[in-house]
Amino acid sequence: MALGFKKPIRPDDPRLQGRETEYSASRGGWFPRGKKPVPGTPQNEEEKTR
Predict the structure, then answer these.
(1) pTM of this structure
(2) CB-based burial of residue 16 (10 Å sphere; 0-12 exposed, 13-18 middle, 19+ buried)?
(3) What are the C-alpha distances in Å from 6 to residues 1, 3, 9, 19?
(4) What is the β-pairing status of strands 21-24 and 29-32?
(5) What is residue 26's three-state secondary structure?
(6) How far apart (Å, rounded) are the C-alpha atoms in residues 30 and 3?
(7) Which of 4, 6, 13, 20 has its CA 20 to 30 A from that of 44?
(8) For the segment 29-48, what is each residue's pLDDT rounded down to a tens digit?
(9) Where are the beta strands (DSSP E) in the chain?
């Protein structure tokens, strides 16, 4: 079984933190979730100093 667990794993198990994936058909499989931007935060260094 994946990650060496012997019993079925609950989705909220703390050992799975940071290993979440999502399926992307265009990329051809399961990949780690991308970081979503927080609305209102600057995207680059120039915007941070304004």
Answers:
(1) 0.42
(2) middle
(3) 7, 9, 9, 18
(4) antiparallel
(5) coil
(6) 16
(7) 20
(8) 999 888 777 788 777 766 55
(9) 21-24, 29-32
C-beta pairs of 24-28 under 8 Å, 24+ apart in sequence = none
pLDDT-derived band at 1 (thresholds 50, 70, 90) equals very low
Which phi and psi angles does 45 have, rounded to 5°?
-65, -35
- State both tokens at 24: 């992307």
Instruction: With H, G, I as helix, E, B as strand and everything else as coil, classify residue 14.
Output: helix
Tell the residue number behind the tokens 């120039």, with chain if given. Answer: 46
The stretches of 1-50 forming alpha helices (DSSP H) are 45-48
Type of residue at 3: L
* Residues contacting residue 27 through CB under 8 Å, at least 6 positions apart: none
